[in-house]
Amino acid sequence: MNTTVALMMTTNAKLVGTIYLALSVTYGTMGFMLSWLVRGELCGLGEQLLFGDHQLYNVLTTS
């Protein structure tokens, strides 16, 4: 059985807790970085961080 499939189908409580913790830290860090990117873009006039790419800004704020 593939390792990824085995991890996704496990019922071991300690392993599930470890996976949950790792994913929550990963997604929390990603959210933190995206929030700082949006704050940095909104802190001044014009485009600061996204180099004038309005479509990318719209995707980041609505996803």
UniProtKB/TrEMBL annotation:
Residue spans crossing the bilayer: 15-38
Keywords: Membrane, Mitochondrion, Transmembrane, Transmembrane helix
Protein name as it appears in the record: Cytochrome oxidase subunit 1
Top-level taxon of the source organism: Eukaryota
Transmembrane keyword on record: yes
Phylogenetic classification of the source organism: Eukaryota, Discoba, Euglenozoa, Diplonemea, Diplonemidae
